[in-house]
Specification:
heterodimer; A: alpha/beta; 6-stranded mixed β-sheet; 9 strands; B: mainly alpha; MetI-like fold; 8 helices
């Protein structure tokens, strides 16, 4: 028998007032799998991640993490969240704590891990994201890319079973995107289960096991990156991809012409 | 009435010990009432932002009443009316309670505004680590409000220091009342009231400096 999927989204609907943000979305992510979610902005990608972390309540449907039923009370909710790492677009580091303080906060406060032990773990995580020399720096002393790498270390410190990335590189200056993607690649190759909302097509192509295309709250296509990005079956996927590629090509002349 | 500079200074020097002793009462009153105000204000702010409708409306009612009625009336109610329903406090503690409850209403709004000014992403990041609402508040949200709280709370403290003079109304022996006593014996309102005003001014100036110093320290 196959083991439980790490993330199982079944027939999820989410509405904001009259707007259907997610329409009957079903998705499974197996342990160790890296799945990228792509699609036009406003298509519900971030909402889907927020629902998976139970930051948003679904209107119908079920989301299970590692086969567990959806949390029914505050205690199970907190427990479920502690097993899911989230990396946000705007980092959301705690500005009143150092990089090390940010990383040990979860283990010490939530898991009640002894301080010395969590500091040791935090140091090895900061080393893993290449920031050993920044453990005493406060967030305002770090670049965007460094902040996001600390945020990844903070999420990893909870030893999550799955990591969610919500446009983790969208708020970064272009020259800082690479260092964050490198950490994410490393994480993917270490066997972490990852669900990644991204606009980075190269990353999606190179790192994902599978790509899911979300348009207007529905999954219009999913499959291996080679197939989805190169020979998309769905018309809306083709439209989205051609817009993204056009945007890429348009960027350079526009930048030169805009002098 | 003018009787020379030297006798004037002599007069002021003579009344100063009495006034400074009363200043001690004024300061004690201010500090204690501020503690009461901070405790009540924090509680009321947390109730106000809670999702529990009952707690939130209780807090709103409290803030509305104590910000919407004169402090003098509140002092009179607590000192003269409360004893009729069996709550007897002496002058000093009536004053502490009145000033504290009144300040609490303003402090509640200050703290609420500070909490609401913290980026929503902070709460989400804390909750996504598995923190409970209370733990996220205590570890992540509240500590970030300190820097924003210091200037308005400093103002509140200074306003409170001046408002303690209203306690003279119920005969509390604080600085203003002590001045009135001296005047009724000496009939010299000018030097007495100017000395009293000077003492208030020195204290408020001193606390303004302390607040500014504290702000710079918190800026790091």
């Amino acid at each position: 028998m196959m083991s439980q999927p790490m993330v199982q989204v079944s027939h999820v609907w989410k509405r904001y007032g009259a707007l259907d943000v997610l329409k009957d979305v079903s998705l499974e992510v197996q342990k160790g799998e890296v799945v990228s979610i792509i699609g036009p902005s406003g298509s519900g990608k971030s909402t889907l991640l927020r629902c998976i972390n139970y930051l948003e309540k679904v209107d119908s449907g079920v989301i299970r993490i590692a086969g567990n039923p959806p949390p029914s009370d505050e205690r199970t909710l907190n427990l479920a969240r502690s097993r899911i790492g989230v990396v946000f677009q705007h980092f959301n580091l705690f500005p009143h704590m150092t990089a090390l303080g940010n990383v040990i906060e979860g283990p010490v406060q939530v898991k009640k891990m002894p301080r010395s032990e969590s500091i040791e773990m935090a140091r090895s995580l900061l080393a893993r994201v290449g920031l050993s020399d920044k453990e005493n720096a406060y967030p305002h002393q770090l670049s965007g890319g460094q902040k996001q790498r600390v945020a990844i270390a903070r999420a990893l410190a909870m030893q999550p079973e799955v990591m969610l990335f919500d446009e983790a590189t969208s708020a970064l200056d272009p020259e800082l995107v690479g260092e964050v993607l490198a950490v994410m690649r490393d994480l993917a190759s270490s066997g972490m289960t990852m669900l990644v909302v991204t606009h980075e097509m190269e990353f999606a192509r190179d790192v994902s096991d599978r790509i899911v295309v979300l348009v207007d709250g529905s999954i219009v296509e999913e499959g291996p990156p080679g197939q989805v990005l190169s020979v998309p079956k769905n018309k809306r996927t083709r439209e989205f991809l051609s817009r993204v590629l056009e945007g890429r090509r348009a960027q350079l002349p526009a930048a030169l012409g805009a002098r | 009435m003018y009787d020379g500079v030297a006798p004037l200074w002599g007069f002021v020097a003579g009344i100063l010990p009495t006034l400074l002793k009363a200043t001690g009462v004024t300061l004690k009153l201010t500090v204690l009432a501020m503690c009461v105000g901070l405790a009540i204000g924090t509680l009321a702010a947390l109730m106000r932002i809670s999702r529990n409708r009952l707690l939130s409306s209780l807090s709103l009612a409290y803030v509305t009443f104590f910000r919407g009625t004169p402090l003098v009336v509140q002092i009179l109610i607590i000192y003269f009316a409360l004893p009729q329903i069996g709550v007897k406090l002496d002058r000093f503690w009536s004053a502490v309670v009145a000033l504290g409850i009144n300040a609490g209403a303003y402090i509640a709004e200050i703290i609420r505004a500070a909490i609401e000014s913290i980026d929503k992403g902070q709460m989400e990041a804390a909750r996504s680590l598995g923190m409970s609402y209370g733990l996220a508040m205590r570890r992540v949200i509240i500590p970030q409000t300190y820097r924003r709280l210091l200037p308005p709370l400093g103002n509140e403290f200074i306003a409170m220091l001046k408002d303690t003079s209203l306690i003279a109304l119920i005969g509390g022996e604080e600085l203003t009342r002590a001045g009135q006593h001296i005047i009724s014996a000496t009939f010299r309102p000018w030097p007495v009231y100017l000395t009293v005003a000077g003492i208030y001014l020195s204290l408020t100036a001193l606390f303004s400096c302390l607040v500014r110093f504290g702000e710079r320290r918190l800026q790091q």
